[in-house]
C-alpha cells in the first residue's frame, strides 16, 4: 500500500472516530426510544396511526407478496454464492427488509404525510409549544380537548415526498447488512446521516428557517442529527413494525424539538424572570370575553394563539369565525400595578384614536381581574406593521 492510500485511510478513520464521538456526546440518539415511551403513554397520539392502519396493512401485504413472488428465486440463486446452504433463509430475510423499505417509502410518499405531521404537531402541543405549532396551522382552544383534537386547519405542509432516487439508493445498499457487524454499521450510518435532518423538516418550517439557516444549523449539530437518524433508521428496518416506528420516531423528533425550544431560556436569574412573567387565567373565558367586546357581526371566536412575548405583556392573536383578527394583551406583574397600567393604556389609545391619530382601536378591556377570565386584559385592533 502506497503512502497516499495509507494517508487517506488514516484520515477516513480519524473522521469516523470524530463522527462517532459527536454522535455519542450529543445524546440525540436516545430520542427515538423516548418517542416509543411517550407514544405508548399518550393514547391521543395513536389516532393518526390508527386512522391509516388498514391502508398501510394492505399496502405492506401487497408489496411483500409481490416481492416474494417475483424476486425470491433469483435472490436465492445470488445468495447461494455468499450464504451457501443458508441462502433460502438469507434471501427471505433480505426480501422482508426490502419489502419493509419499499412499504415505508410508498407509505410516506402517498399515505402518511398528513398523519405524520399531525403526530409531530400534536407532540409539540402536548409539550406546551402551541405558539410554535401555530406558525404552521390553526390551534383550537383547550376546553377539554387533547393535543390531537386541538389541531386545526393546516397552513403549511412540509413533509415533501421522498425521491425515487432515495429508495433506489437504500435498496442498493441493503445487501451490506449481510457483511457481519461492519456492513450493518456502514449501512445504518449512511442512511442515518441522510435521514436525521429529514426528521426535523417540520420543525425547520415552523421556525421559518430558509435553506441557508437550516443547513448551517444541521452542520453545527451534524453528530446529533446523525445519531438521531441512525437510531430511527435501525428501528424502521424491523419488518412488519417499520411503519409503527415511523410514528414513534416522529414523536421522538418532536420531543427533541420541544427540548430545543425549552432550552431557549433567560440567562440571568431565570427562575425570577419566569415568575415575573407567569400569568394564570381561564383561556376559554378570555375567548368568550373578547368575543363579546368585538360583537356578533364576525361570528363566535374560533381560536387564539400566542404571539412573541413583549417586555410587559403576553400577547395573543384572536381569530373569529369569519377570519377577522384582533389582539389580546395580558399584562405581566412587572408592568407595575396592573389595574392602572391596563386602564391608562386603554384610555390613552382611545383618546388618540378619537383625535384621528392612527393607533389601534380598543374593542374593550378589563382593568381588574374580577371577570370570568380572572385576569386584566385589553382587546384591540390588529394593526398591520410597516416596514
Summarize the structure.
The protein is an alpha+beta fold and 387 residues long.
Number of strands: 7
What fraction of residues sit in β-strands?
A: 5-15%
- The percent of residues in helical segments reads 55-70%
H/E element order? HHHHHHEEHHHHHHHHEEEHEE
Report the span from N to C terminus: 64 Å
What does this protein structure show overall?
- Keywords: Membrane, Transmembrane, Transmembrane helix.
- This protein is α+β, with helices and mostly antiparallel strands and 387 residues long.
- The protein folds into two domains: 245 residues, no CATH class; 103 residues, 2-Layer Sandwich (Phosphorylase Kinase, domain 1), CATH 3.30.200.
- Helices cover 59% and strands 10% of the residues.
- The chain contains 15 helices and seven strands.
- The protein has a five-stranded antiparallel beta sheet with strand order 3-4-5-7-6. It has a two-stranded antiparallel ribbon with strand order 1-2.
- The termini are far apart.
